[in-house]
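Morning. Coffee machine broken again, so started the prediction first thing and wrote up yesterday's gels while waiting. Chain of 280 residues, entered below exactly as on the submission form.
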Amino acid sequence: MNAGVAGGLARTGRGRARRAANGSAAEGAARAGLAARGVIYLLVGILALQIAFGGGNRQADRGGALAELSDRPFGAVLLWALGAGLVGMALWRLSEALFGVTGKDGRTARKRLPAAARCVFYAFVAYSVLAFAAGAGGGGSSDRQSRDVTARVMEMPAGRWLVGAAGAAIVVAGVVIGVQALRRSYRKKMKLGGLSPRARLLVDVTGVGGGTARGIVFAAAGAFAVRAAVAYEPDRAKGLDDTLRSFADTSLGPWLLACVAAGLVLFGVFSFALARWRRV
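Came back before lunch.
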């Protein structure tokens, strides 16, 4: 065989092996990230349920979830593992932004730009978790952070409009999340062919219930940001904890909060299902 041809075949083989390894690494990062997200939503939902029924002394947000996890046996190890999983999520979203998303039209800007935004978001979340694990903070109150950020943005030129626009965008995102959950759009991204009827039922119950609850929380948080912009009062902006507690202030009382909290628990379980059966 010609030496040049042999060298070309060797390079081709190495390239295929490298792509296969990168694919396996990306898949592992994605599944670890989805599982890590599931842990956070599961803990936040449980903390919110405790609040709904008059118990619990922690905030129902990421900071409260991290504090709860740190009190468990081997809490430090769990926190580092959670942070590593979220780093994997950020890297997976980065690969989607750079090389395209799985599925039809995956290489279009319409699919890659949201992946880039998710990469930035999960990079921030991963940093906060790892900072908390290292004892350098990172688990602060989402309510205080939301008010502080809103106040700083409002001090900028046209800051009031920026806050209002961001809040409106979050409301729209929440509605989209809820509608997609009700339409079961997640099915397009999952390997459902080999699932048993019981597993399919689990995916649909957690996907619809969890996704709808998540969308409601997003929309409510965005509405509070819009209200803060309209009233020009940064303190009216709410983080995750205050947003959840606001459901208990409605005419339905703590039962609405309990339903939303149960939905967040379902979304945590749904994230575990995605980690197992999603196409990545």
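Confidence is low (pLDDT under 50) at residues 3-22. Going to sketch it on the whiteboard this afternoon.
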